[in-house]
């Protein structure tokens, strides 16, 4: 019998049966089931990282899978330090709320109060707008900025906002940059020093730091599907790196109101302008019973699900971005005694080499796997073929890339993003008529696709 079928049967038995020993060892069955799930995920090549599950201050499960970088020479440990991606923004928002609770700031304070040399629009933008991504300030242009001076200069030269503050939503890192500047303006110290003094030291977080270089002890390096380490860089400073254990300390302290009040926490846990939209702490429900957040940075990926009432924390941190967000849902369902699923193997990773060598054989391999292994590979996920298409495009294999994107739109004919990708491949290959045709199709499927609109205008100007 196939080893995966055996493991799946074992998972099913552990996931749905209650052993007699559960009263004396309440977490034993959870731990075994989670371990089987994670082991399969690692063997399938869809998870490389650390896992931690705690409940009521007790350890349910903790384990490391894989290596600190693409070389595969050093194994991960529980003290390995990762980038948590956007989860690091929680430290910025909570710092703002700490200063508000002290009376040093107010939610309605305007940007113009902080001597940043910003244009007249800063009179309309408040801290509350920044915290909820409704300021109208655009995203940082990472193609042109190299450092914080460039970011600030870009904002100082920004003539107009994208929209009136509070009337629309735009997730962006300029809001985070400005919040850090506000903290520094008020405290007369760096954001990093403020967090160290008021959060890191009081919580006894020891495996943590800011803007860590590649050679920092226990610091993981992210790597891609080719086992190539990513060139991790960011123009702004003050980005937190943390171990999974210290991230657990942060979540626990935050939810037990050791840093800010319950009222302040609830202010951050829901978007104050648009119900159901992202908030700076990720997301919660109307009754504030659960807190979920995920983040990505290059090939780093981190996610947590936390329940307030049961004091349950589930955390995954990976340095080889794949399916952490899917896997953590399954771990959560295991802890809740609910049905869960095994994340499937990446079809992109499986057929990649053949597609680079011979695109016709690669596509035939795709169809063969779909015919015989539908339950093992993630054929239902359009992002798999999309990722492969861009892989080929970045390798300057234009025709191969176009063929994969054409395969993708034939498999998912109602997916606007895939037509946008095919349009980009045709545009890169200077096949402008076909690019225009696919951008039009994408815009028909998704009228809010502003990128398609911009590219269509660009192609029309080019044609003229």
UniProtKB/TrEMBL annotation:
TPR repeats lie at residues 416-449. The keyword Endoplasmic reticulum does not apply. One of its GO terms (molecular function) is hydrolase activity. Residues 34-271 form the Beta-lactamase-related domain. It comes from the Bacteria. InterPro entries: AmpC-like, Beta-lactam-related, Beta-lactam/transpept-like, TPR-like_helical_dom_sf, TPR_rpt. SMART domains: TPR. Coiled coil: none annotated. It holds the Pfam family Beta-lactamase. Keywords: Hydrolase, TPR repeat. This is Serine hydrolase. The lineage of its organism: Bacteria, Pseudomonadati, Bacteroidota, Flavobacteriia, Flavobacteriales.
